[in-house]
Amino acid sequence: MTSQPDNTTPATPEAEASGAASTVGAARKLQVRRAPKYVPFLIAGALAGVATAAIFTFMFPADEQFAASSVFGLFAVLLVLPGMGLGAVVALVLDRQGRKKSETLVVEQLPDDNGSASAETA
Asked: Is pTM beyond 0.90 here?
């Protein structure tokens, strides 16, 4: 409990309407930037890991003890996660560059035109 009096007034529809009217047309600053989507970078990194596994499999001579498909599977499992990590790092670097090149724009909210909204629904 505080010793200060409560000076707040209850919210009325008229007060809310006048508050909404004051925010319409008010200018706000927004930052606009390009940001990469991370999932395609992760998928590309995983595919790069599988491609590297294929290169490692066929770069060395075959062994009688292990089939080529099992060697490829082992290398694929071992290199997919580092490939995804490399893709994530590339996406983070591009995201950081996008933040540096961001622009600040000033926008204003336009008032709603209730007459045209009811005409569109009819």
From this structure: no
